[in-house]
Write a structure and sequence with these properties.
Number of helices: 9
Structural class: alpha/beta
Strand order of the largest sheet: 3-2-1-4-5
Shape: globular
CATH superfamily of the largest domain: Ribonuclease H-like superfamily/Ribonuclease H
Number of domains: 2
Mean pLDDT: 82
Order of helices and strands: HHHEEEHEHEHHHH
CATH topology of the largest domain: Nucleotidyltransferase, domain 5
Helix content: 40-55%
Radius of gyration: 19 Å
CATH class of the largest domain: Alpha Beta
Distance between the termini: 21 Å
């Protein structure tokens, strides 16, 4: 039996495969084979590349407005033997606001992230917390929001901790193969992470089950077959 019709999007929904990584594609291929559906590795990869961003965009559109305190941070990634930087913004509740893979760690890169955030959410944060990298301050002055900018290494733990899921996925995928693939994966991963990040450690078992059920309902609605 070969995959046809609405099966591709249904597959992405059922198996939650939005990364297109080699391990994810191989696992998904085997799961389908068990059910008598024969697909190639390349077919799975194309399904994910096509439908993954669409599902992620739908999930993002369903999210509430972010908290007005934003945390910005950057970490390095080694891709194909060269160093690039992952710039990330999260709000005070751990919601990933955006991620950008950039080759530089300077004022221009910080400015690009801030402009994208301001345009995307159409609000100016009450507080914008960063580490001591001077590029943030220079970018904030250019945008006229330096009065809302706060710096402090230990005050930005929220953003620094938000890199941990990315590091785990990076190890599982045996590193990213290109800046473009890293950007595509991390953008989709952030949308899925936000949907299912129900703060388990802060809630009772009953509340957790309720929130998890709501997250699963949102996922099914976002990934409904066309």
């Amino acid at each position: 039996m070969r995959a046809t019709g609405s099966r591709p999007r249904s597959f992405v929904r059922r198996y939650g495969c939005t990364s297109g990584s080699p391990s994810a594609c191989a696992t998904s291929k085997d799961l389908l084979a068990e059910r008598g559906i024969i697909v190639s590795y390349e077919t799975v990869r194309r399904w994910v590349n096509h439908f993954g961003p669409m599902i992620a965009a739908d999930l993002r559109s369903r999210r509430p407005k972010p908290h007005t305190t934003w945390h910005l941070d950057e970490v390095y990634l080694k891709i194909d033997g060269r160093m690039v930087y992952l710039w990330r913004a999260v709000d005070a509740e751990g919601e990933v606001l955006d991620v950008l893979v950039q080759s530089k760690r300077n004022k221009h890169a910080a400015l690009k992230l801030m402009r994208k955030l301001l345009k995307k959410y159409a609000i100016v944060p009450e507080r914008m917390i960063t580490d001591d990298l001077r590029s943030y301050g220079a970018a904030a002055r250019d945008l006229g929001i330096e009065g809302r900018h706060e710096r402090g290494r230990w005050r930005n733990n929220r953003a620094e901790n938000s890199h941990q899921p990315t590091r785990r996925r990076e190890r599982k995928m045996q590193r990213f193969k290109s800046s473009g693939s890293a950007q595509r994966f991390l953008s989709s991963h952030a949308a899925v992470f936000n949907t299912f990040n129900v703060q388990r450690h802060l809630t009772s078992a009953q509340t957790h089950r309720t929130l998890r059920a709501a997250a699963m309902k949102t996922w099914r609605e976002a990934a409904v077959p066309m």
